[in-house]
Here is the input.
Amino acid sequence: MSYGILVVSHVKEIADGVLKLIAQVAADVPITTAGGTDDDGIGTSVAKITSAVEHNEGDEILAFYDLGSAKMNLDMVMELSDKKIHLYNVALVEGAYTAAALLQAGQDLPTIEKQLQPLKIK
Amino acid sequence: MLTVANTTKWLQLFTDQVNTNQDALNQYDTPIGDGDHGSNLARGTTAMMDSLNKADLKSVSDVWKTAAMAIISKVGGAAGPLYGTAFLEMAKASKDRPADDIAVQPLIDASLKGLLKRGGAVPGDKTMVDVWTDVDADLEKGPLTSDQVKTAVESTKPMEAKKGRASYLGKDSVGHLDPGSVSSGFFFESLIQEGEIQ
Ligand SMILES: Nc1ncnc2c1ncn2[C@@H]1O[C@H](COP(=O)(O)OP(=O)(O)OP(=O)(O)O)[C@@H](O)[C@H]1O
Ligand SMILES: [Mg+2]
Here is the structure.
C-alpha cells in the first residue's frame, strides 16, 4: 500500500508553499495540491480537489486542509471518489509536514496517526 | 406540490434575488466573514440557471440534481457544498415520489438533515442551519409565511457563531445577521413568491 499527501487550501500560494516545505523532506512521497477556486481566487474547488486526488500516485490519500469549506468540499469528494482518503482535522502545515517526514521514513499509518493526534485543532 | 415548471421558477426567483442583493450579501459577510457570500452565491446561481435552461428536465428530481451540480462546481466557498448538499438531498427525496405528489416539506426536511451532516453545525450556531430548522418546523404546521421567514433570519442576530468563518470572532459575532441565513431567507421568500407550490 502506498500513501500520498493532499494539501487543500483557500489560497493557491499557501498550497504551493506547503508543498514546497514538505517536499524537501519527502522526495519519494507523492504530493498533490488543490489551492484556491477554479480561477485561483480565494476559496476551494471540488474540481481541483478531485483532480488532485486522481493525479496523486498514492493508493490512499492523507488529506490536510485549512478552513471551513475546504473540509466540506473534501468530504464531498470523499463520497464520490474510488480512492480511500484519510482526512485529518489537524494544523495544516505541521500535520502535512509530520505525515510527509514519517512517510519518507517508511513509517506505517498507525504510527503516523499517533503523531498527528496532538496536532488536532479542528 | 412541486412540478418541473414551478420548481424551476422557484430557483429563477431565488437567482434573481441573489443577483439583486449580491452586494448586500457581501456586506452581511463583511463584519463577520470574508465579504464574499453574495459573489460566491451569485456565481453559483447564475451557472445553475444556465444549466437548468440547457438541460432536458424530465422530473423534479432532475431539476434539483442539475441545480446541485452547478452550485457544487461553481461556488467556491462554504455556500457551495452547503446549498449543493441541500439540493442533492431534495433530488434524492423527490426521486421516488409519484410525479403529481411531491410536497415541499419532506424535501426541506431531507435537506436539513444533509446540511447538519455536511457542516457539523447544530441549531444555535449562527449558520443557515438555523433558518432551515425553523422553516422545516413551520412548514410542518402549514404553508410558510414571509413573517416566519423574517423571524427565522432575525433569530441569528443575537447568536454567537460556533461554525464557519464567523466563529473565529467569538463574542464579536453577536449582533450581526448571518449571511448564509439571509440568503436562505431569499430562498424561502422565493418559494412563497412562486405562489403555487405550497
Ligand atoms: N459548518 C457550517 N455549517 C452550516 N453552515 C455554515 C457552516 N459554515 C458556514 N456556513 C454558512 O455559510 C455562510 C458563509 O458562506 P460563504 O459562501 O461566505 O462561505 P465562506 O465562509 O466564505 O467559505 P470558506 O469556508 O471557503 O471561507 C455562513 O453565513 C453560514 O450560514
Ligand atoms: Mg464568505
